[in-house]
Amino acid sequence: MAKLINGKEVSAQVKARVAAETEELKKKGIVPGLAVILVGDDPASQVYVRNKKRACEEVGFLSEEYRLAADVTQDELLSLIESLNARSDISGILVQLPLPKHLDEKAVLNVISPLKDVDAFQPVNVGRIMIGDYHFLPCTPAGVMELLKSADVDLCGKRAVVIGRSNIVGKPMAMLLMHENATVTICHSRTKDLPSVCREADVLVAAIGKAKFVTADFVKPGAAVIDVGMNRDENGKLCGDVDFDSVEPVAGCITPVPGGVGPMTIAMLMQNTLMAAKIQNGMIK
Ligand SMILES: Nc1nc2c(c(=O)[nH]1)N[C@@H](CN(C=O)c1ccc(C(=O)N[C@@H](CCC(=O)O)C(=O)O)cc1)CN2
Ligand SMILES: [Mg+2]
């Protein structure tokens, strides 16, 4: 039986740490503030944005929410971001993704000040991650690293396989694992004989967006299996990219969905926003 890695528990620990530090910052007159921009009315995005606001309240941050109509123009969105860039009471800015098709996501992310880019999606921060000189890490990969640490998974010299090559998860995930001295392979839809590549992994991270895609034959006995997926199964039930029931008996440790990586995403956002407040107040160079 695999050890279950509990994302709810670890995310609560991260948020408690952030809340304690925020209390100290407030004594110096510094209040971290997060602005979240939601364009359109995608129901899942609405839930995530609501949860981000709730997390801000939990850790003692100021939070502002901007709900823009689905047909907002690119110029309107860019000017909102520019006005938030200029405000000293806003430490972090986040644009909830995905954006409606008529908006240019790259141009939108580009305009966020790198000092307030708490998602770490802005090209300056992406580059800094590449060279290992960063303040902000993208929330989901950072959350995965925190979960691996909580489960005492040793990465040094180990084989790690990441399935998925998105800019938001797969690519930065591979970098973070490499910074911890793992030997990393990135797989994707064109990878030949995917199960046999995955079977070499001591640490397997699934971020492909296909329900229950990773089955027991992808998993080396005793491996750490991290499921970044969020899908609906044939009955409409939330499930990950990993077929939990078949993989759990083979893995050494495993994250569930829900309750694994998901809650970490928001906890790490709180950590990044705290970091942004410290940077803007000259506490970190
Ligand atoms: N600007 C961003 N957009 C998006 C991000 C992001 O990090 N920044 N990530 C995802 C959505 N997301 C946060 O925004 C997110 C997704 C899932 C969860 C979560 O807690 N999931 C729960 C299950 C929730 C449910 O029941 O539906 C879990 O896995 O336990 C948090 C945040 C895309 N967009
Ligand atoms: Mg989860």
Automatic annotation (TrEMBL):
Residue span, Tetrahydrofolate dehydrogenase/cyclohydrolase catalytic domain: 5-119
EC number of this enzyme: 1.5.1.5, 3.5.4.9
Keyword terms of this UniProt record: Amino-acid biosynthesis, Histidine biosynthesis, Hydrolase, Methionine biosynthesis, Multifunctional enzyme, NADP, One-carbon metabolism, Oxidoreductase, Purine biosynthesis
Tetrahydrofolate dehydrogenase/cyclohydrolase NAD(P)-binding domain segment(s): 138-280
UniProt keyword Coiled coil present: no
Catalytic activity: (6R)-5,10-methylene-5,6,7,8-tetrahydrofolate + NADP(+) = (6R)-5,10-methenyltetrahydrofolate + NADPH; (6R)-5,10-methenyltetrahydrofolate + H2O = (6R)-10-formyltetrahydrofolate + H(+)
The protein's annotated pathway: One-carbon metabolism; tetrahydrofolate interconversion
InterPro entries, per database record: Aminoacid_DH-like_N_sf (IPR046346), NAD(P)-bd_dom_sf (IPR036291), THF_DH/CycHdrlase (IPR000672), THF_DH/CycHdrlase_cat_dom (IPR020630), THF_DH/CycHdrlase_CS (IPR020867), THF_DH/CycHdrlase_NAD-bd_dom (IPR020631)
A single GO molecular function term of this UniProt record: methylenetetrahydrofolate dehydrogenase (NADP+) activity
Gene3D superfamilies reported in the protein's UniProt record: Leucine Dehydrogenase, chain A, domain 1 (3.40.50.10860), NAD(P)-binding Rossmann-like Domain (3.40.50.720)
Superkingdom of this protein's organism: Bacteria
Gene Ontology biological process terms in this record: L-histidine biosynthetic process; methionine biosynthetic process; purine nucleotide biosynthetic process; tetrahydrofolate interconversion
PROSITE patterns found in the cross-reference section: THF_DHG_CYH_2
GO cellular component, one term: cytosol
Entry keyword annotation includes Ribosomal protein: no
Residues reported in the UniProt entry to bind NADP(+): G164, R165, S166
Family according to the record: Belongs to the tetrahydrofolate dehydrogenase/cyclohydrolase family.
Function noted in UniProt: Catalyzes the oxidation of 5,10-methylenetetrahydrofolate to 5,10-methenyltetrahydrofolate and then the hydrolysis of 5,10-methenyltetrahydrofolate to 10-formyltetrahydrofolate.
Assembly information from the UniProt record: Homodimer.
NCBIfam families: PRK10792.1, PRK14186.1, PRK14188.1
HAMAP family per the UniProt record, alphabetical: THF_DHG_CYH
Name of the protein: Bifunctional protein FolD
